[in-house]
What does this fold into?
Amino acid sequence: MGDDNRLTILVVDDESDIRDVTALAIADAGYRVETAADGRQGLDRCCALRPQIVVTDVRMPGLDGITLLERVKAFDPLIEVIVMTAFGEMETAIRALQRDASDFITKPVNHDALLMALQRAAQRHITRRQLAEYTAQLEHTVEDQARILHQDKMMSLGRLAASVVHEINNPLSGILNYCRLMLKILGRGEAAAEDLRRFERYLKLVESETDRCSRIVSGLLAFSRKTAPSFGPVDVAALLEKSLSLSRHKLDLTGIELVQHVPGGLPPVSGDFNQLQQCIINLIFNAIDAMPDGGRLTIGAEALSDPARVRITVADTGEGISAEDRPRIFEPFFTTKQDGHGTGLGLSTVYGIVQHHNGSVDVASSSGQGATFCLTLPAADPGDR
Ligand SMILES: Nc1ncnc2c1ncn2[C@@H]1O[C@H](COP(=O)(O)OP(=O)(O)OP(=O)(O)O)[C@@H](O)[C@H]1O
Ligand SMILES: [Mg+2]
It folds into this structure.
């Protein structure tokens, strides 16, 4: 469009009289007009001038109007093309419309009909350009969002890598030091009885530190879903029973009251028994940790419909989670437990596994009010049961 905001119309016709009269009528109607004497020149001018609308004759020597239409549309589909056909050339008009001409007018040109066609083409051009701009803007927004998501992911991966290094480095350097110490003592000659007692202590530390490293690594594996799960129908009551029996020892030690609301006849969920058990145990252990002075642990399950799912709840009456910590509890290595008591991988493991099961995990809690974790898992397909 020119500086004056008028639309530019290119008139292409090999007959100079018709070309001039048509151009004059169009200029009179307030458009900017350019002309070309044949199809080839029309195409050149089109590329140079980028008019909004081209009005072209069909029958021209060399490059005819239909070919010009095709080339113009290939150059810029937003340019509207109106073809002028001789009276009775209906087939040509149809061919032009099939090639996305915006309109056709018959020769000899009636100026009112021409101006009407121009108005419609101008409207169509403006609408299509707005649509194209809007689409481009949308694509841009989607690209932006994808980039932000990617950046987010890279940032959390970076944080994850940094924390893995940090978490594993300490136990590893401990292990290394104890090993060196023992080698040094052994290097001095036969180990005395007192040395052996020290070795036992060192080896216990090496054992517990190695165990810590391996827990970190296996937790990370579950979080990054690199372990291959074996999916099948999982009986929820059996899953909860097994998980509780594995936590029984810890429960008994802390004098926590256990309440169960697990109705019979729950539909099985679709999943990997071991991974789901790991989730439930992590939630139970967290609940136990949150109630060092005793309390009540409530395990519940209920069937939901549309779509068929089962919701498992693990609720405690412990210290609860502060609003500040809430957004971070599913992050790997986020822990509020002191002195190496927590690796901070329990909930991130739960999150990773539940995602992989197409389920969801939610928490309701506030400081001092206990916490309730809900796992929602899709019911197994009746065909698979
Ligand atoms: N039931 C709960 N009540 C109160 N706080 C909780 C509860 N469950 C989790 N949290 C909070 O979320 C944090 C992260 O839990 P997560 O299970 O990921 O790690 P962790 O228990 O600290 O360590 P890990 O499970 O690896 O031994 C906990 O340190 C605790 O602050
Ligand atoms: Mg935990």
